[in-house]
Design brief:
By secondary structure, the protein is α+β, with helices and mostly antiparallel strands. It folds into four domains: 8-55; 71-121; 156-310, 2-Layer Sandwich (Nucleotidyltransferase, domain 5), CATH 3.30.420.10; 333-408, no CATH class. 33% of the residues lie in helices and 15% in strands. It contains eleven helices and 14 strands. It has helices at residues 8-21, 26-33, 37-50, 71-83, 89-102, 112-121, 196-210, 234-241, 258-271, 279-295, 399-408; strands at 156-160, 164-165, 171-172, 174-179, 185-190, 215-218, 245-248, 333-336, 342-345, 348-351, 360-365, 376-381, 384-390, 395-396. The chain has a five-stranded mixed β-sheet with strand order 5-4-1-6-7. A five-stranded antiparallel β-sheet has the order 8-11-12-13-14, with no helix packed on it. A two-stranded antiparallel ribbon has the order 2-3. A hairpin with a 5-residue loop joins strand 4 (174-179) and strand 5. Helix 1 runs antiparallel to helix 2. The model is unreliable at 134-146 (pLDDT under 50).
Length: 411
């Protein structure tokens, strides 16, 4: 025997008919249909008032909604979302408010939560599974990567965005540079390689356009740092020569450069999901992203959700045509490091570091006037302490050997 199909209005009609025919008492009928007596009397009254149409489900929406968003406001918000498909409710509200202010309009904007519901109704967002996040606090000022700029160009952040392939199979490796104070995206360029020879022209162009920063913060990877002497690379040695301090985050702590990493996430979502068809088209996307990121996009990390361009100004330190001369005091002897990373000492060549090729270093006698005078020399490059040079052995001492000397010498 097939199942009988029924629906809610049919069941309500059967209940009302049974009531009118007096098949049973109201209490028994309500128990049979598994409803309360209040509901039973409600449906009986609706039937008497409107007949069978009165048993259909009615809208639960309020008759009057004083807080309902005006159609013009909703149109402006959805229009702004169409221009910027990845912006969330808070950014959309700020952008709409600024555009209305520019146009001389006064409108009442809804809350961000209301805009979120508006976007859902329009099918412009999709639900994502919420991930559990651990607690995170900004690094303290004593940590290596925790230098905070008080003004524009006090500190730049630099890194390579993880590479990806464009539609034609080309490898895109964007070098990005931001100003830590204003979050201004100074440079965003795909380079053929991630080495110092490819990165230096990009930094030269950035220095010419924006001037020199006081410091640049990077991770500990190539081409920004090395495992060699003082962690220097040829790129960072060039920065130091220009009077730029190199700040390295602690290994394994990308959160110390968190604002830059967060920008990379936005860049990937807006320009490479999916990537462009060609490398040239991808660079056009990167350029457009930089313009929008700097001038249009409200930044939630800035006070009042300002735009980076409203807080940034170029550095007063211009990029020099020639690197400034390195000067050491009278107590220092200077040596030139050749293209093999070596300098001359008493007629012999001593290896120092490939990172310092073409640079001038200073050496100061640590034991002047003592028994070991002329043997141990402090080595320095500009402001970077390189270590201790042992003239008798003709090499730089290892850190363990330096610690041993510090225990037995009285310099």
């Amino acid at each position: 025997m097939p199942w009988k199909e029924t629906c809610v209005p049919d069941e309500r009609l059967r209940f009302v008919v049974a009531c009118i025919e007096g098949q049973d008492s109201m209490a028994k009928l309500c128990r049979r249909f598994e409803i309360s007596r209040r509901i039973g009397y409600k449906w009986l009254a609706r039937y008497k008032e409107c007949g069978p149409p009165g048993l259909a489900e009615r809208s639960r929406a309020p008759h009057n909604s004083p807080n309902r968003v005006e159609e013009e406001v909703e149109r402006r918000i959805l229009s702004m979302r169409a221009e910027h498909p990845t912006w969330g409710p808070r950014k959309l509200l700020v952008a709409v408010a600024r555009r209305c202010e520019r146009d001389g309009l006064e409108i009442d904007l809804p809350a961000a939560s209301t805009v979120g519901q508006m976007l859902k109704r329009a099918g412009l967002v999709r639900s994502r599974r919420r991930r559990e996040r651990g607690t995170w606090a900004p690094p303290s000022p004593t940590q290596p990567g925790a230098v905070a700029g008080d003004g524009p160009n006090d500190l730049w952040n630099a890194d390579f965005k993880g590479w990806f392939h464009t539609g034609d199979g080309a490898r895109c490796q964007p070098l990005t540079v931001t100003d830590a104070h204003s979050r201004y995206l100074l440079w965003c360029q795909s380079l053929p390689r991630t080495d110092g020879h490819s990165a230096r022209p990009a930094f030269e162009a950035a220095f010419r356009e924006f001037g020199l920063p006081a410091a640049i913060r990077t991770d500990n990877g190539s081409p920004f740092a090395s495992t060699g002497l003082a962690g220097l690379s040829q790129l960072s040695a060039w920065w130091v020569r220009l009077g730029i301090a190199h700040v390295r985050i602690e290994p394994g702590h990308p959160e110390q450069n968190g604002s830059h990493e967060r920008m990379h996430g936005t860049l990937k979502r807006d320009t490479a999901s999916p990537p462009a068809a060609t490398l040239r088209a991808q660079q056009a996307r990167l350029d457009a992203f930089a313009r929008e990121y700097n001038h249009d996009r409200p930044h939630e990390g800035l006070a009042g959700m300002a735009t980076p361009a409203s807080l940034y100004e170029s550095s007063p330190r211009a990029y020099p045509d020639r690197p400034p001369a390195v000067e050491y005091g009278d107590e220092w002897e200077t040596r030139h490091v050749d293209e093999t990373g070596k300098f001359r000492w008493d007629g012999a060549k001593v290896f120092l570091s490939h990172a310092l090729e073409g640079q001038t270093v200073g050496l100061r006698d640590l034991c002047e006037g003592a028994e070991d005078a002329g043997r141990y020399w402090a080595a320095r490059f500009v402001t970077i302490e390189l270590g201790v040079f042992d003239a008798d052995r003709g090499r730089m001492l290892r850190p363990r050997e330096r610690r041993h000397l510090e225990l037995h010498q009285t310099w």
